[in-house]
Amino acid sequence: MSDAQAPLKNFEKTCDFFVGIDSDGCAFDTMEVKHKACFFPMTVRHWEMAGVAKYVRDAWDFVNLYSKTRGCNRFHALIHCLDFVREREEVKQMGFKVHEAKGVREWKERESKLGNPALLAELEKNPDPDLLRAKEWSFAINEEVAKTVSNVPPFPFVRESLEKIQGRADMIVVSATPNEALEREWNEHDIAKFVEVIAGQEMGKKSEHLGLAAAPRYEPEKILMIGDAPGDMKAAKDNNALFYPINPGDEVASWQRFLEEAAEKFLAGEYAGDYEAKLIAEFDTYLPEAPPWK
After folding, report:
1. What is the pLDDT of residue 2?
2. Which SS3 state, helix, strand or coil, does residue 178 take?
């Protein structure tokens, strides 16, 4: 069996600095369309929740777009969403039974590469009905994304930022999105040429991406993760790396600041400390922990 993480394990250092870049919601303005036009309707359909669809929409959008779990893996997001819907008083009053998805809960606790290849491998050993449902749901989402999401260019200043640090920092994509979608989107807009590896969910968690490609080869203060979600920041901190936030809703201004200010500070060794702390404190104000209905 081929090793999905081989491109990360075999990564070749060519510069003193390393930059990991998230994709959805960070480099591309694809979060809203993917979750509202693809993930949400497939979740209602495959998990049989038409009767409580408006509560599913509230929960799905909160988990994936408007809270500190923004950007999490789809299987984690599914469980968060099911739990939020189940806990709604309105849903309880209706007597509506929300799927427990016990098989998915158990699988996601023991598997780090939470993607369709790992799910198919698990199903060969364990044909659990929840996992079968999750497979149909996950593949349906990918089909909807492939049909729906095109002609979404990178945020302004992304291309210019990549051009600025090209040859001064090694770059990879660090994402929880399936590789197929990442490859399609980065190539569609001719920015795949700036990165050495496009790492999606099939290659493991974001912290693993950085841990395999960057941590063994670069000094911690010379590793930077650019992302729009707390999970991106956690991946950086899990590897003692630095984090540059793309603030949700203020993505263009965030990329402009990176291009005009933060990139040079990072490459000059002036990013760590007060400057990073100020940016992270600002970032922390953008996303709540508790949903508005609680």
Report:
1. 64
2. coil
| CA dist., res. 254 & res. 50, Å (int) | 38
Residue 122 structural domain: 31-148
pLDDT tens for 72-86 read 999 999 999 999 999
CA dihedral 41, 47, 51, 53 (to 10 degrees): -30
Among candidate residues 68, 48, 46, 66, the one with its CA nearest the CA of residue 58: 66
Positions of E strands within 4-61: 17-21
Q: Where does a domain end: 148, 182, 208? A: 148
Measured distance CA(148)–CA(10) in Å, rounded: 34
3-state helix, strand, coil in the chain (%, to 5): 55, 10, 35
Q: What is the pTM of this model?
A: 0.90
Please tell me whether residues 280 and 164 are part of one structural domain. yes
Look at residues 105, 121, 148 and tell me which one is the last residue of a structural domain: 148
